[in-house]
Amino acid sequence: MTQNRTHTCGELRLSDAGKAIKICGWLENLREVGSELAFAVVRDFYGTTQVVAETADMVALLKSINKESTISVEGTVRERDSKNAKLPTGEIEVVPGKIEVLGRCQHNELPFPINRSREADEATRLKYRYLDLRNPAVKNNIILRCQVVAALRQAMTEHGFLEITTPILTASSPEGARDYLVPARNHPGKFYALPQAPQQFKQLLMTSGFDRYFQIAPCFRDEDARADRSPGEFYQLDMEMAFASQDDVFAVLEDVLPPIFAKYGKYDRASSAPFMRIPYTEAMEKYGSDKPDLRIDLTVQDVTGLLGACGFGPFEGNVVKAVVVSDFHETRKFIDKTLADVEVVSGGKPYWFRLDENGEIVGGIAKFVQPIKESVVSALGLKPNDFVALSAGKLGAAQKTAGTLVKTLGAAVPGHMDKEQYAFCWIVDFPMYEIGEESGELEFCHNPFSMPSGGLEVLLKAERGEIDPLSITADQYDLVCNGVELSSGAVRNHDPEIMIKAFEMVRLGEEDVKAKFPAMYNAFTYGAPPHAGIAPGVDRMVMLLAGEDSIREIIPFPMNKNAQDVMMSAPSEVTQKQLDELHIAIVKPQD
């Protein structure tokens, strides 16, 4: 049995009429017109071709084959009487002389119609992912992913970066999420860890003398799923540069990403270099988020001094933020539902009032605003038909609710979101330290290996009490696109003296650093170059390019929200023999 084909199912054209050909693919559909006439659609990776059976024997053969069986068709190409301009192969059809079953589908009923698989529930789609991927709409996302990864590799290579793979089995280290642990059979009681990121290895490569490194790196984190985060594993464009500053990193990504987004994205517009740079504190004040969606024209204003003493109880003693939405003509039902959604997402209750077409304060907390109407209208620059949404609470809570108002109202109210573009920005100058919610003491805010802005001198000033440690910023940055954090990066703290001092600020000494990060600390004592890097998430990038809301739509074989692979039944139990070899005993939790 030969499976060689002369053409794919998306290749034949009118110019091929009269040719003897052989195609192979899946039997997608069969439409019978009578006992001696039937139209079949054969689909492969490249497209579909119509096959016309015109004899009783050939019709009977096709009827005996279940849909989604793989078949080969040998026959002659001819011009179609009824052409389909929507299909690349819509001007031709194949009259078969021989049809052979290559792989029989043994099921009369499919879990879902292949071309409508996205309408099925997610659990069914994940269980039968191999069928889901036959849907051209689903398959195209995976093709897009392949194209984007290839384009990233080419662009990084053209910028002088070497692709270097780093270990998958490594040591556990405190990097912010739970590790996946792998028992070491030959070392009872010890474990490898799957890397949460190649962070230490790429910094060690810089210390080893490599100048520019990248890889499409697999990362493993035992954390819960979100719409923009896959549980278990994900991929990132990991990169690091020696003798580099923040500006050097920005220049590379501002050159690499816009052409890829413009070429492969659902929208053909992408920010050009240089991307807007927004300090962290400004982002929180102006947008209520460190992941602002710059496609939205709404911003946050502080009105604590204006409304904090207006007599409305929830404002008393709290920070008050306002979001003004111009040209607002939505119904009360819309307002109630939208603000309820904001409360669910942010955890903070929003409030509102509006200026009607006659310039009167109405709705929501209008009676508290009315006595200071002139001041409010002047301070906020209000015009008739303006809507004002408000949040209140401690600074962080008020900012979070205001940020959710910006995002929700910007997307829901017409005229406030230029959706069809990719709007990039850098968030810079992150705080180096914060007060821990549980400890009440000074802790690292983000990456402890970021270089503090000002280096050793600023740390010594904080140690001497000359400045507040909370005022120290880090040479750390996030890349944000359309309200999605694509990556975090930093200029690294490559100096052991500065590193030790940074850790001493949070009550950890040199021995703690040596114990937690022995290889990197020791390597730095042999003369490390200044270096900086970043790691944009490939999965999130492709999700944005495809215009999908869920990251699982662009991963070939994703896990569900509970980090289960229902197709492969993972995680699964293992045999007692395997456990004994690994010196592991299972202790089940008590009821």
Automatic annotation (TrEMBL):
<dbReference type="InterPro" id="IPR045864">
    <property type="entry name" value="aa-tRNA-synth_II/BPL/LPL"/>
</dbReference>
<comment type="subunit">
    <text>Homodimer.</text>
</comment>
<keyword id="KW-0436">Ligase</keyword>
<dbReference type="GO" id="GO:0140096">
    <property type="term" value="F:catalytic activity, acting on a protein"/>
</dbReference>
<keyword id="KW-0963">Cytoplasm</keyword>
<dbReference type="Pfam" id="PF00152">
    <property type="entry name" value="tRNA-synt_2"/>
</dbReference>
<dbReference type="Pfam" id="PF01336">
    <property type="entry name" value="tRNA_anti-codon"/>
</dbReference>
<dbReference type="InterPro" id="IPR004115">
    <property type="entry name" value="GAD-like_sf"/>
</dbReference>
<feature type="binding site">
    <location>
        <begin position="537"/>
        <end position="540"/>
    </location>
    <ligand>
        <name>ATP</name>
    </ligand>
</feature>
<comment type="similarity">
    <text>Belongs to the class-II aminoacyl-tRNA synthetase family. Type 1 subfamily.</text>
</comment>
<feature type="binding site">
    <location>
        <position position="492"/>
    </location>
    <ligand>
        <name>L-aspartate</name>
    </ligand>
</feature>
<dbReference type="GO" id="GO:0003676">
    <property type="term" value="F:nucleic acid binding"/>
</dbReference>
<feature type="binding site">
    <location>
        <position position="175"/>
    </location>
    <ligand>
        <name>L-aspartate</name>
    </ligand>
</feature>
<keyword id="KW-0648">Protein biosynthesis</keyword>
<dbReference type="GO" id="GO:0004815">
    <property type="term" value="F:aspartate-tRNA ligase activity"/>
</dbReference>
<dbReference type="GO" id="GO:0006422">
    <property type="term" value="P:aspartyl-tRNA aminoacylation"/>
</dbReference>
<dbReference type="GO" id="GO:0005524">
    <property type="term" value="F:ATP binding"/>
</dbReference>
<dbReference type="InterPro" id="IPR012340">
    <property type="entry name" value="NA-bd_OB-fold"/>
</dbReference>
<keyword id="KW-0067">ATP-binding</keyword>
<dbReference type="InterPro" id="IPR002312">
    <property type="entry name" value="Asp/Asn-tRNA-synth_IIb"/>
</dbReference>
<dbReference type="InterPro" id="IPR004365">
    <property type="entry name" value="NA-bd_OB_tRNA"/>
</dbReference>
<dbReference type="InterPro" id="IPR004364">
    <property type="entry name" value="Aa-tRNA-synt_II"/>
</dbReference>
<feature type="domain" description="Aminoacyl-transfer RNA synthetases class-II family profile">
    <location>
        <begin position="148"/>
        <end position="556"/>
    </location>
</feature>
<dbReference type="InterPro" id="IPR006195">
    <property type="entry name" value="aa-tRNA-synth_II"/>
</dbReference>
<feature type="binding site">
    <location>
        <position position="485"/>
    </location>
    <ligand>
        <name>ATP</name>
    </ligand>
</feature>
<dbReference type="InterPro" id="IPR047089">
    <property type="entry name" value="Asp-tRNA-ligase_1_N"/>
</dbReference>
<keyword id="KW-0030">Aminoacyl-tRNA synthetase</keyword>
<feature type="region of interest" description="Aspartate">
    <location>
        <begin position="199"/>
        <end position="202"/>
    </location>
</feature>
<dbReference type="GO" id="GO:0016740">
    <property type="term" value="F:transferase activity"/>
</dbReference>
<feature type="binding site">
    <location>
        <begin position="221"/>
        <end position="223"/>
    </location>
    <ligand>
        <name>ATP</name>
    </ligand>
</feature>
<keyword id="KW-0547">Nucleotide-binding</keyword>
<dbReference type="InterPro" id="IPR004524">
    <property type="entry name" value="Asp-tRNA-ligase_1"/>
</dbReference>
<dbReference type="GO" id="GO:0005737">
    <property type="term" value="C:cytoplasm"/>
</dbReference>
<feature type="binding site">
    <location>
        <position position="446"/>
    </location>
    <ligand>
        <name>L-aspartate</name>
    </ligand>
</feature>
<dbReference type="Pfam" id="PF02938">
    <property type="entry name" value="GAD"/>
</dbReference>
<dbReference type="InterPro" id="IPR029351">
    <property type="entry name" value="GAD_dom"/>
</dbReference>
<protein>
    <recommendedName>
        <fullName>Aspartate--tRNA ligase</fullName>
        <ecNumber>6.1.1.12</ecNumber>
    </recommendedName>
</protein>
<feature type="binding site">
    <location>
        <position position="221"/>
    </location>
    <ligand>
        <name>L-aspartate</name>
    </ligand>
</feature>
<comment type="function">
    <text>Catalyzes the attachment of L-aspartate to tRNA(Asp) in a two-step reaction: L-aspartate is first activated by ATP to form Asp-AMP and then transferred to the acceptor end of tRNA(Asp).</text>
</comment>
<dbReference type="InterPro" id="IPR047090">
    <property type="entry name" value="AspRS_core"/>
</dbReference>
